[in-house]
Sequence to fold (285 residues):
Amino acid sequence: MVVAERETHQPPRPRAEQQAPRRRWTRFILPGYSALVILYTLVPIGVMILYGFNKAPAERLTFAWNGFTTEWYRHLFEISDLTTALVHSLEIATLSTLIATALGVPAALALSRYRFRGHGVADTVILADIAAPSVVVGASLLGFFVTLNVTLGLSTILIAHVAFNIAFVVVVLQARLADLDESLIDAAQDLGANPWTAFWKVTFPLIFPGILAAALLAFALSIDDFIITSFVNGQTLTFPLWVYGSVKVGIPPQVFVMGTLIFITGVLIAIAAVLVQRRAPAATI
Fold:
């Protein structure tokens, strides 16, 4: 009888009952924190999009809502200086992305596949370029151009953007190349492919998502750069520099409209990049 009573007796578990509500509450901490971070990021963008439809008196933006209008989309390129600055930003971002990607891909391949004298120094320089404050990079580039007596302008901005974009391209591609299966390349060469054919038929398709991601990052860093550009621009204005200068006299609503269009374009390109990356593994099997 004593044994039966011991077997059927179940001791109370107050701790489990006390911890159950706490566990149900704590599971919302991480999702709630993530939602707050996303909201903090999207609210300024939402304000920009919203006030691109605001009627602004004297063609200068105010944060008092004066009514809905699409006037600023119809007169998007009415301010010639702003349009020229936007064209400069797009030209520099496109060219610097192409040049930095063309130079960064071979550099990433060399640093990932081979060991040579100066390999460690090269890695250190690339990481230092990323870690260095923008003020330091801009001041050093300005001193370099002044020492060589180079006229500041569109060309110096392009050189500066290529200089800091290469490091980001190399780092992104190195992360992609770290997961590359070298046996696939060896198999292609065993089947008679020369190094050039093996690169285009095997290596390039495998690392293309990484190249695309690196190019998109370089373009985004270039088009919105302000600090480094302000050191080496001379009399040339880019979109961020023009917006900064217009703050003193009032920002025209076209700035918000252009920012909205740039944001939407970036979102569409990012979605396209994700779709390409999802299809890439199936294409390489």
About this structure: Confidence is low (pLDDT under 50) at residues 1-5. Residues 81-284 form a domain with the MetI-like fold fold (CATH 1.10.3720.10). The CA atoms of residues 78 and 254 lie 8 Å apart. The chain has one domain: 81-284.
